[in-house]
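Standup, Tuesday
Yesterday: got the pipeline producing structure tokens again.
Today: sanity-check two examples.
Blockers: none.

Example 1:
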Amino acid sequence: MVETALPVAVSEPDRQRNPARGYAYLVVAAALFALNGTVSKVILASGMTAMRLTELRCAGAAVGLGLVLLVVAPSRLRVSRSELPLLAAYGVAGVALTQCFYFVAIARMPVSIALLLEYTAVLMVALWARFVAHQPVRNRVWAALALSLTGLALVAEVWTGGGLDGFGVAAALGAAVALAVYYLLGEHSANHRDPLSTTFWAFVFATLLWSVVQPWWDFPVEATTGSASLLGNLDDRTLPVWVLMTSMVVLGTIVPFVLVLSGLHHLPATRVGMVGMLEPVLAGVIAWVWLAEALGALQLIGAVVVLAGIVLAQTARADAPPA
């Protein structure tokens, strides 16, 4: 997951910007996030629960990003008492719940469809800005809404009575709501903190939540010691579960987050958001090649229509498009 988006970075002088490098960072990040969806699905199929996997990912990301901050900017680790409530809400609602709902969704439905549903968070933010915050929103938001609903109807094949798992769809939409909260809270935190330290503290509070809900002394260590089938077209091959989990934390979380942050130094936030739309596309391709998760022709058309709606929604807000 954007799997997750980030707050807008502080702009740098134009002479320090390198758009080509920024795009390269973002494409690699999108590919790693997309690959992580399939890796996570393999881990879930091995017997690990979505909540435990979320707990592990949050804790690993908090440790990894904390180490990065210690090396590059230890002063950013400081946090004032007044910032704690916002950071806690950001971590609990925006990080812990988004990832948990996403893991539940991909365990029950194709990765690409789960991501499409989750990315409708961008549309939710635009509608929130229009009807709740009363911010300027361009009329294209209505076209975005129409495209998204039409595309989702095609993806879900509603004329067949619904071929998707109902609980999986509910989880993916729950992830979308949580991600929308993440975007909105991120805009507020961006006024006070840099993106890297904000993301670090978000993962810290997400880890604290899961540590209370499901204490670490009850963690199913035995589930990490065996091997897991890679499923789909690689069903006859296995990897140790701990290797897959390490990949999820390092290559699927820490590295792409840092790459997105690096991309924000070279490109405007709106372009970063647009490139982020590669994630569901690449996730679908990877899941097709690896897991044999094939979508029908109408579902593929629907996916394209949904992405078009999300792109329109991404640019609908006149004052502060989400990153």
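Example 2:
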Amino acid sequence: MPLHSDIVMGTLVTIHVVDSGFDAAGADGAGGVDSAIARAFEWFHEIEARCTRFDQCSELMQLTAHAGVPVPASAILYEAVRFALMLAEETGGAFDPTVGHRMEARGFNREHRTGAIVHTAITPEDDVSYRDVELDPERRTITLRRPLTLDLGAVAKGLAVDSAARELAPFRDFAIDAGGDLYLGGSNPEGDPWYVGIRHPRRDDELIASLRVSNKAVCTSGDYERRIPASDSRQDAAGNHILDPRIGAPAQSVASATVVASGAMLADALATAAFVLGPEAGIQLLTRLGVDGLIVTPELERYETGGLCHGS
């Protein structure tokens, strides 16, 4: 059972391939598995290098430095931005990738490997939004119409998980865990659908639900993740890291939002969008887009779609 881990994108990424799951396309033994796992991790490093806002040398931050002009983009960055803008339009701005500077101002600006503080030398206007980003699909360019910083945190890690999953698809039975962003292929070592425990948002080491999943991604956004302490010197710094872009403040009506979808980029982004929209509108969004999910409020009320497969 090859099991490999690496720290990338600010989190621990673990890949587990079940030996019994090899099919004809992946029957070249352990060496083939190890090579596929290595290629899978390469996707995480490549996508981070292109899409992170925590490295001034990344492709994303180079784009930030050239507001007002069309900038040719790699296939990776272009797809991440295209998807983020599509979801922003779908949610009426409840999901918006242009919140990067506001996230930075709230203290979410520390590079995970070095601990260095990242500061973007721009002064965006308060009303920047996804409508200030223009794509040219023929030339594959991205234009920031006004100075702004994109934050692709709710997109890039899911894109990396999906890219890694494609590398591992020949082995059929595998699991990818990128800091809680999961893709679960085929079956677990016992031959059953994978078991996924959903963390209780208010009680450590306790689950609020469990799911059975096969060939799907599962991603959760929670208000317990990456909090800035209330003792921080900035007046607006306390609270969770999920901003409601429409008001520029943390979303407050949800404690956790879990989404089960065909891919991790979709599941991760929709978990963020549902968190911001709130329980009722969030479930409506998931239902409209044909995915499943569970939303828990701070009062521990549960809202869910009808297609979740709960574990025992």
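Quick observation on example 2: Residues 59-151 form a domain with the T-fold fold (CATH 1.10.3980.10). Residues 9 and 48 are 6 Å apart (CA to CA).
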